[in-house]
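Narrative progress, year one. The postdoctoral researcher (J.K.) led the effort to move from monomer predictions toward full complexes, under supervision of the PI. The following entry was the first complex the group processed end to end, covering 406 residues in total.
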Amino acid sequence: MLTVKYLNVSGKRVIVRVDFNVPLKGGEIRDDNRIQAALPTIKELLSKGARVILMSHLGKVKHKEAPEVVEEQKKKNNMAPVAVRLGELLGQKVVFVPVTRGEELEKAVAALKDGEVLLMQNTRYEKGEEKNDPELSAYWAKLGDAFVMDAFGSAHRAHASTHGIPSLLKAEGKQVAMGYLVEKEVANLKRCVEVKDEDRPYVAILGGLKVTDKIQVIDTLLKKCDYIIIGGAMSYTFRKAQGAQIGSSFLDEGALDYAKKCLEEAKGRIILPVDSIVTDSFEPVEGRRVEVAGADIPDGLEGVDIGPKTAELYKSYIEKAKMVFWNGPMGVFEQEEFQAGTRAVCEAIRDLKGKAFTVCGGGDSAAAVKQFGYKADFSHVSTGGGASLEMIQNDGHLPGIDVLGE
Ligand code: ADP
Ligand code: MG
């Protein structure tokens, strides 16, 4: 697959789909990580003498709502502050176009010189963006001579800016390619589904809330992995399926039959908690009970983290692994008292540094890894929550990547 490095784009208008979906509060950027992450691709294109046209979505704009609500959402998700921050980081002027179509945009694009950067308003200002509308895609595609996909976090969505534009440009014989960020994500995540002998034992660690959200990923990983370790709330649905008592732990009722079937088919390759941290209140109220329960959880208590014996058991699997894919925290890591399980997994993976290939993908799990300070100990921590999971469950395929072709 073509990457930005090999593009011939001197003097050309290059549309770059970036992920500038940064957290904003009152127009202030609270974390500019995503802008920083796009810099290598943007700089590469600028050094090649391209005219760079950046597009990204930012937050949500629900076009089905009343017009005044839509206006409110547009105001809240205005891309303007991102242009300012990007200009600071690049050390050069960024032309900001506050609209997503029309004369103002077309004139700004036409005025762009080699080595200059333009950022268009939030793609979601357009109703047709999320529908991959052909008219909108064609309109935007006309603004560019080439396309670079660097928004990994949006690559699982076939929208006008992630799918419509590249498919049209490609059909016209124009250059379409991956940016550096996407290239790295694709290489690392594909390795998790294209398992080689030397990657075994391959251990997957899954956690988080609902089994339903992760059925496809479990199915795919069961075919690839030697063991799947399960923690988090979803482990209790599996424990219930085994006939255990789970007290008032979170139960994904609709997934019980699936869990039973899955355990049968896995023939001992799914590893479940043998103890848990339990509480009588999910809310951090004063005087709540927090204790360790064994394999069964008594009535009135809910499991909120894996227990110490389970952490040891899971470490014993992880320490032998040659490859690890992890998605989903082991407990309610947002609360300090329920972090130990997720931390234990981080530590076990840290101890594999230099000895195994280790990947974390998922919104909350990646946040936990960063929050606890273990990011540098992983071979790769994905920047795309939903996208990384879909990449695994779809066996290495995503619409926004596949469209770029060979
Ligand atoms: P990811 O974003 O990494 O894919 P999920 O979104 O599936 O992960 O799950 C993360 C959420 O699961 C966290 O908010 C965490 O508090 C919650 N969670 C984990 N374990 C439990 C548990 N035992 N009970 C209730 N919630 C849990
Ligand atoms: Mg999540």
